[in-house]
Amino acid sequence: MIGYYLKRIVSALFTLFIIATLTFFMMRAIPGGPFTREKPLPPQIIAQLNAKYNLDDPVIVQYFNYMKGIATFDLGPSFKELGLTVNDLIRQGFPGSMKVGFVAVMFIILFGIPLGIISALKQNKAIDHVVMVMATIGVTVPSFVVATLYIYFISSRISWIPITGLSNPLAYIGPAIALSGYSLSYVARLTRSSMLEVLRQDYIRTARANGLSEFRVIGKHALKNAMIPVITYVGPMIAAILTGSFVVERIFSINGIGRYFVESVNNRDYTVIIGMTVFYSALYIVMVLLVDIGYSLIDPRIKLGRKSGD
Amino acid sequence: MSKILEVKNLRTTFFTHLGEVQAVRGISFDLDEGGILGIVGESGSGKSVTSLSIMGLVDEPGKIVEGEIFFQGTDLTKLDHKDMMQFRGNEISMIFQDPMTSINPAFTIGNQLREVIMAHSDLNKDQAHERALELLKMVGIPDPESRIKNFPYQFSGGMRQRALIAMAIANNPKLLIADEPTTALDVTIQAQILELMRDLKDKINSSVILITHDLGVISEICDKVIVMYGGMIMEKADIKNLFAHPQHPYTRGLLLSIPTNVTGKKKRLIPIEGSPPDLMDPPSGCPFSPRCPHAMEICLKKAAPLFKISETQEASCWLHHQDAPEVSGMVKVEGEQS
Amino acid sequence: MAERVVTRMRNPDFELVESSKKMNKEQTRRSLTYWKDAWRRLKNNRLAMVGLAGVILIILFGVIGPWFSPYSYSDQDNRFTNIPPRFEIYAIADDGYVFLSSQYNLILVNEKGELLDKLVRTNMDAINKIYTYDYEGEEIEVDFKNRLLEDDGGVDIKVTYKNVTSIYPTKTVSNKTFPWGTDNLGRDMLTRIMFGARISLTVAFVATLVNLIIGVTYGAISGLEGGTADDIMMRSVDVINSIPLVLYVILLMVIIDDQGLWTIIITLGSVYWVGMARLVRGQVLGLKEQEYVLAARTIGVSKAKIISKHLIPNAMGPIIVSMTMMIPSAVFTEAFLSFIGLGVSAPMASWGTLANDALAGLSTYPYQLFAPSIAIALTMLSFNFLGDGLRSALDPRLRKG
User: Fold this and answer.
1) pTM for the predicted model, two decimal places
2) B44, B276 contact by CB (below 8 A)
3) Distance between CA atoms of B207 and B36, rounded to whole angstroms?
């Protein structure tokens, strides 16, 4: 069991290493340096800047310095936001992203899973149809549309709901809806189909044949099995959501890392792009790792170190 | 001998979106207390649906549309869900075909056994645990103290079937229904499981319905047999008569097509030509008539009643009618019975 | 079996029937090929058919639509900027009507809702909130004081022409010149959306095709080779799979830094093939043990031929389903990229770009956002319905009954 966790941790570190390397060389492959402007800077200034940021070293030396930085959690300076480092930006943005992400994840777990279960138990009844139509719309309408519709129809008309920022608790509703809309709907659909699949299983018939109450058959025997694929999806999803969505943070003017990331993309602020990518990936990989470990506690088969199917 | 189970004119239909599938079409039979009744037939003959109907476990869109099922005088078809729960796993238990899928992979064997015990008794968790250990010992699982903590994936197929049998007999049921209990197992394990079932039946003093497509299995432990085809009963007989002189062309066909030579004579295997009827649109007459070598005009129009051949044998075949052509081995019966 | 016929009065009911006759009675389950059966099931699935119809309509909309449009996606008419699809008109003369746009441009229209011209503004009295426009030498006064009051008593603006004041609009008409309105440069929204459909769908289809080719080849080789090759290939897939791919799409877009159609296609195509590769590998692993594949191998058929002749055709069901699901997610990703400013460059526009452009003016010109949003949502919906239907039609586990 320990061996399994160790293996997972090593492979996560390896993945991260590949990501950092890949990102570094991808950004170095861009023609022109980070100081290329529409109006070219004088060569001596570029030389000065290059020296300042050690960009005049050979690429391989830069690479090692960069990797050393990552190992010590130092993602380097921003080239555009002068005086700020990538770490500063992450420190500024992360709390906002986390808070909105957390609310969104709660929405998904508290609404998505129960709706899916209800839908499965009332298969082909009116409530099932309603939930599924909503869920289908939920997975087909992009988050930026949900966000803008929310602003247009709700927060701009109801004065006590703030339109932007995170000034009071109500302000979280819009971003959390926009952020969770897709995943919530997806989780509801997944829970439903997984539940239906499980309810068809022979062991459910066995449980019924043993005279167990319907409450136990569904609440115990079906639920635990039905949750396995849902958890598999929810794990990486939590990772993706907690890191914030670029679009939602932009629309709701939330100071999150997603917003900084989009800004750095638009400004072509290369160090920030690399740094954020590495940070996002690290966060994602760590979250997936944590979920995997939690998952192995639920599904007994995984303890042997093999995954039950992909 | 008193009857523990009486099924009267049972009719179970599945209302699928493509049409009605008439899985069981008006069958009647009974089971003596302490008896072992075999129900034999190929897949789609309605034998499994019959057993699920008794258990009240026919899933949507299936429904019992007609008939009565008396268990010790109580008509199970009239019971509501809650009352039926008191019978299931308690008075009547069922063992299913595939032990690999019939046991919940997410809980330990002990957990699932205790649950069944506690659902139908006042035992507390510790007492239930003791009982579970006892049951595992009874079904021949070695080292029950450690095995009880195992998850199903740590059990082999035969062991799982033993565990499932343990669950089924946990509350000393009066009736045990086993639906193809050995089909998914290796041949060597099959014999062991049959042996175990016979032993346990005597120990807990219950009656058994054994559903199978395998006449070999039937011959080993049953005392009476029902042969089903296309949702109807083709022949009812005690085991001796069925194997010695089958009175239905389908039963004959079955006996000729089994590889182990139960009848003691060496013969070539003869397959039954054709395929089972489409239950969505069953033949209006005898369901076997399209494949029957002796099909007559009347067979295509009207299903035969059960002709009483002897005290212990009945067959639903027009060949027993006075007007039918003579076929060797087929007994003619005066008048029509049942 | 020997039969002995008895000589006695024969009851016709008990005549033996000939085998040919009774065989007619035997159930004849229509034998359908896999694809015919799948099509039959798909046809019976109402939602799937709605999806299929939607997909066809959207494709026609993008492919044929622009031919019927009098405008091109880049035609600007700076007289008619930000004109909504429906507006209120005020009568000024016998056959003259005007409409006041959100930008306080007075547009001359006719009764049917065709836009005629923009009237020249001659005076702006911002204090009294009265603007004056010139119409054929005469003045039109527009008093919009009430517009800003909470309690307007139903009065929006007052239009005075030749001393006749209209307080209430004559009626609300649909924009006949630009049915879906215009954007901030006076371009026809309908035409832009149609061209947007071309771009969005081209990106989606081509990117999916690229994914398909890479994914199927990779997965098939991995599955068929097995052993170490399979191990290495699947390890790589695992690594790629544990990277948040959106980031890489963004990174690639930044690096290529040429906001053309092909950049997006290549980027999307090169990143999202992993799922397909896994799926195909799984299928191939199951199929390669089948007798017909073993038979082909023993007679020395080349691997490429085994893949193309035996494996892929048999794995086609799940591949098609997965493809149908890939298309909407490509539409989605493209819209998302455009929305954060990495889409195709102006004046071309995909639906995402259109939505992004509309964001700034959302509170005033919501229709500019609704049109592309609805287009995206309908596309996603149609493909999803179709995909769901295909999944259940092609799933062998559901084929009975």
Assistant:
1) 0.78
2) yes
3) 6
Asked if ipTM goes beyond 0.90, one says no
User: Is pLDDT above 90 for A229?
Assistant: no
Residue A53 has pLDDT above 80, yes or no: no
Q: What are phi and psi of B209, to 5 degrees?
A: -110, 125
In the predicted model, what is the mean pLDDT of residues C37-64?
A: 88
- Tens-place pLDDT, residues B152-182: 989 998 899 999 999 999 999 999 999 998 8
User: What integer pLDDT is reported at residue C2 of this predicted model?
Assistant: 45
Summarize pLDDT for C14-40 with one digit per residue, the tens: 878 776 555 544 444 556 677 787 788
Relative to beta strand B224-229, strand B232-238 is antiparallel
Nearest alpha carbon to residue B39 among B195, B196, B213: B213
The answer to whether A221 contacts B104, with C-beta atoms less than 8 Å apart, is yes
Torsion angle of C-alpha atoms B324, B326, B332, B338, degrees rounded to 10:
-40
Is C244 in contact with A268 (Cβ distance < 8 A)? Answer: no
* Domain residue ranges of chain A, discontinuous segments joined by +: 2-71, 90-298
Residue C152: the pLDDT is 54
- What distances in angstroms separate CA C306 from CA B292, C220, C276, C292, C316, one per listed residue? 44, 10, 19, 10, 14
Nearest CA in chain B to A200: B59
By percentage, how much of chain B surpasses pLDDT 90? Answer: 49
pLDDT band at B271; cut points 50, 70, 90: confident
Phi, psi of B179 (to 5 degrees): -95, 105
Mean pLDDT of B111-132: 94
How many Å is the Cα radius of gyration of chain C?
Answer: 32
To the nearest whole Å, the CA of B294 is away from the closest chain A CA by 40
Per 3-state DSSP, chain B is made up of helix, strand and coil in percentages (nearest 5) of 35, 25, 40
Q: Which residue among A201, A210, A301 sits closest to B153, beta carbon to beta carbon?
A: A301
The CATH class for the domain spanning A90-298 reads mainly alpha
- Partner residue facing B323 (CB), from C3, C11, C16: C11
Report the residue from C14, C23, C25 with minimal CB separation from B323: C14
User: CB neighbours of B96 closer than 8 A, spacing ≥ 6?
Assistant: A202, A205, A206, A209, B102, B164, B179, B180, B181
* Summary mean pLDDT of chain C: 80
Chains that touch A (3 or more CB pairs under 8 A): B, C
Give the torsion through C-alpha atoms of B164, B168, B169, B175, to 10 deg: -140
The predicted structure's pLDDT at residue C9 = 56
| Cβ neighbours of B168 in A, within 8 Å | 210
Which comes out higher in pLDDT, residue C213 or A23?
Answer: C213
Quote the minimal CA–CA distance from A128 to chain C in Å: 15
A203–chain B Cβ distance below 8 A for any pair: yes
Nearest CA in chain A to C47: A133
Q: Which of A202, A223, A234, A215 is nearest to A106 (CA)?
A: A234
**Which of B85, B94, B102 is closest, CB to CB, to A213?**
B85
Per DSSP, the residues of chain A read -HHHHHHHHHHHHHHHHHHHHHHHHHHHTSSS-TT--SSPPPHHHHHHHHHHTTTTS-HHHHHHHHHHHHHTT---B-SSSTT-BHHHHHHHHHHHHHHHHHHHHHHIIIIIHHHHHHHHHTTTSHHHHHHHHHHHHHHHS-HHHHHHHHIIIIITTSTTS-SSS-SSGGGGHHHHHHHHHHHHHHHHHHHHHHHHHHHTSHHHHHHHHTT--HHHIIIIIIHHHHHHHHHHHHHHHHHHHHT--HHHHHHTT---HHHHHHHHHHHT-HHHHHHHHHHHHHHHHHHHHHHHHHHHHH-GGGGGT--S--
Regarding predicted confidence, which is higher, A289 or B247? B247
pLDDT in the model for residue C57:
93
